[in-house]
Amino acid sequence: MDFTYTREDNDQTLLSRIDAIRQGQDLEVLEPFAKVYLGLFYDVDNQIAPAERIDLLANAELATAIKLGLQNVLLRPDLPSVESITEANLNQKNLTIGYVILAGISLYAEQDIEKVYELPEQTRSAAICFHHFISTFHDDNWYQPLLNTQTEQSARALLSMWQVLINKKQDFLPGLKPVIEEPNNVPLFTKIVVPLLLGWTHCRHRDLSSLLSQAIRHADHAELLAAAEEMQKKAELMNLRNQVYWQTTAFLLDPEQQGQNLINFMGQEKIKLLPMLDFIIPLLDNDEDPSFALSATGYGFLIRCLAQKFTPQMDMYDNLGEISLRVLWLFYMLACFSKQEGGETLNSLRKVRVLKLYKEIFNAIADYQLSPDKPDFHNFIQTLRDEGRLRMKKNWHDVR
């Protein structure tokens, strides 16, 4: 497409304003050119490099001034705060300076990514916020390096943005999912997870489960345990499933001190026990990420919580049910400890009256704890079945 007429028109109308453009003061002019740079003008070919799109619409002098202006906006002291940007987005108000900031920081990054790190924190924070609230066809290739390099500042920006949304009872927090899931974001995750969760009592249970699982793997355990104990004091503000997750988190981090609390809280209520089981198994049975390991004492408390309620049950095809297998996996993990590591826990379980049904399994575990060779879980279950050690309790309401 020929933009000769557009360039001539821009020369006539904009050259008189070139100083304000260059200094980053004339946002009225800079905004449409920022949108061109970000690929938001459909009549400008997005296959052309972003900076060259500006060259199509302005002569060399004006184009240079526009590019400088887009970058100089980043140095203005009056840029909006993260909180005001987030509030504006919630109220569906369009802060046009956001396009200018995104274009300007991208131009900085094209020249030298290190220059981005030297920008004022308010600028970088605003850019992080606008990155999530403005959709463009441009790759913000400065964003991930900024998170990786300026971790503490990025954490502050994201937490400030999310807290506004949390206060407005929003469930979706933009940018949170990659922080949780991408391995290169672990350093950032460890800085945000506890402050985030302390202020998010209405967090959806799926989000809370994911956040706490990752926090148990990667966050500072003392800090997370303190948070779990604090959140237990706010139990009335949370739904029951979230209470279960926080109670279980405290237990996993300190089973010796929190084990009895877990048993008292769970009782024999399926509405609590089943979410706990769903929470702990993916966390503990994860060969790809074995960053967290539970002690034998911890497995002993879990067996005490779960085994009485979910006794071994067969389906119509003579297969163990899913819940039965999950509970028996806890026994298997106890069998994988040596006698020195797990013998005391095993002896303690043998004394629990309501677990007499598992006497023969406990005997098998004692043998495995003495042996240097441990079976895999499938062989463990098969051996128990072959030797007739699985005793069934005819509580049909437990069959699942």
The helix content, as a percent range, equals 55-70%
Largest sheet: none
> Mean pLDDT, nearest integer?
92
Radius of gyration, taken over Cα atoms and rounded to an integer in Å: 29 Å
- What percent of residues are in strands? under 5%
Written as H for each helix and E for each strand, in order along the chain, the element string is HHHHHHHHHHHHHHHHHHHHHHH
Walk me through this protein's architecture.
The protein contains 23 helices and no strands. Residues 395-400 have low confidence and may be disordered. The radius of gyration is 29 Å and the shape is elongated. With 400 residues, it is mainly α. The protein has helices spanning 4-14, 18-22, 27-37, 50-57, 60-72, 82-90, 97-111, 113-117, 121-133, 143-149, 151-167, 176-181, 186-198, 205-218, 221-232, 240-253, 255-266, 270-284, 296-306, 322-335, 339-350, 359-370, 377-386.
